[in-house]
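Lay summary

Proteins are chains of building blocks that fold into shapes. Our project writes down both the chain and a compact code for its shape. Here are two examples, one after the other.
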Amino acid sequence: MSTHETTVLLFRNTMRITDGHLEDFRSAIVRAVAFAERNGPQLMVQTFVDEERMLAHSFQLYRGSDAVRTHWKSADPYIQEVMEHCQVEYFEVFGEPDADVVAGMKSALGDQCALTFSPRIAGFVRFTTTPGT
């Protein structure tokens, strides 16, 4: 895979949950992930919560930059709802999105958090299609 169009992208978003918003955050995430499962281009979405530290970690796997743009267009209301209950602390991009996606991420995140990019060296994806997992 040498072009941006065929580059797998993995996002790791670390969010600080606002005090007193844990249950609302959980509800918003459940709705957002359910929407992505039904309508989104992601190959995988997983979100984990560290209640003790009030942090959430979201991982999203995309086929490439076009899929990220599709996600942004369709899921914006869900993203906004989640962001009512948290602030992004770190956003890590594994892979090489195109310049348009990089600019969009920098614009959306501004100075609120660290944004890092790590180019892919090698790898593969293996998923099973077991219902309910």
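And here is the second example, written the same way.
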Amino acid sequence: MDTPKSKKLDVIIPAYRMHSQSFLNVLDGISEEDAMKRIDGKTNHVVWMAGNFLNMRYGLGWVLGLQEEDPYTELFFQGKALDESFNYPSLEELKKNFHAISPKVYQKLLEAKDEELDEIFEIGMNAPYFIENKLNFTGMCMGREDYLCGQMGLMRKILGYPGMKYDTHENLEY
């Protein structure tokens, strides 16, 4: 396992890598048609969930100094509500973006220093128990990714797919 410069990320690094595995596993076998289905018009579709997952990766990268813009930020930034009038990207396009951004963000996580992680990063939570800094934003991103993978896992079952497998992709190093 790679060792981050900051010991504060010892828990984040394996979580990030597991989320990468889960992202690919939860989307495995879902058709493009099914990925656009909503349940009773009440749920987000899998494409929206996957796109929001990726937007979290782009956002985390940005906070850590990676100057790469999500090509679909207008669709997913800050969990923007699904709008059926928009043309959403395909799952294949989102997977391509996943493989492009994820290793770069992973490298930024490995390189982050304590001083950088301690920098104030205001997100407007105004919660007395939550210091708004880059480290806690990183943790919030991990929580959001976890939530989205769970949502996509539930959609798999609702759409008639088998449950997500926890196989590991040996060549996936991020």
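What can we say about the second shape? Residues 134-158 form the longest helix (25 residues).
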